[in-house]
């Protein structure tokens, strides 16, 4: 996978999801990530036409294709909920009574 990322080669594999359902995926691999003792692949899935996160241990029969892809913009990734976070953030100013603030700080 690392070789495919560095060379920008598309990869193909069978992916088994958490419900044991298997699908064949063609992915433009962008990044390997390690979280909570588990490795993940982040890439653009052609089947879903969107960025996806794949758990490495659920990938079967991986092959590196000759097809070379253009690098897409890598978005920030949050593995806590397995969703891609867009850069559309806002800044908030929270006003509250001091006693409520003290309760929040203790939590």
Q: How large is the radius of gyration?
A: 19 Å
The topology string of helices and strands comes to HEEEEEEEH
What is the approximate shape?
Answer: elongated
Low-confidence stretches: 81-87
Give the DSSP E fraction (strand runs of 2 or more residues).
Answer: over 45%
Notes on the structure:
The chain is elongated. Strands 4-3-2-1-5 form a 5-stranded antiparallel beta sheet. The chain has a two-stranded antiparallel sheet with strand order 6-7. It has 2 helices and 7 strands. By secondary structure, the protein is mainly beta.
Give the key terms.
mainly beta; two-stranded antiparallel ribbon; 2 helices
Itemize the secondary structure elements and their pairings.
Layout: H1 2-7, E1 9-16, E2 22-35, E3 38-45, E4 50-55, E5 59-68, E6 76-78, E7 83-85, H2 98-106
Antiparallel strand pairs: 1-2, 1-5, 2-3, 3-4, 6-7
Summarize the structure.
The protein is mainly beta. It has helices at 2-7, 98-106; strands at 9-16, 22-35, 38-45, 50-55, 59-68, 76-78, 83-85.
